[in-house]
Amino acid sequence: MFVVLFHEHITANPKYWWIILEFVDYARSHPGVAFATIDEFAELARHGQRFTAF
């Protein structure tokens, strides 16, 4: 699991969105990478399920 937190001064300002989009494209280029909210991850862990790539 790799948690990425974006501060509001970045996500609220469109001039910085390229950073987020570039990171997502980079991450997606690697096999086995999946995206989930922290709530989705916690729900899987709560039920003893492993989080696997989609």
UniProtKB/TrEMBL annotation:
InterPro entries: Glyco_hydro/deAcase_b/a-brl (IPR011330). It comes from the Archaea. GO terms for biological process: carbohydrate metabolic process. This is Uncharacterized protein. It comes from Methanopyrus kandleri (strain AV19 / DSM 6324 / JCM 9639 / NBRC 100938).
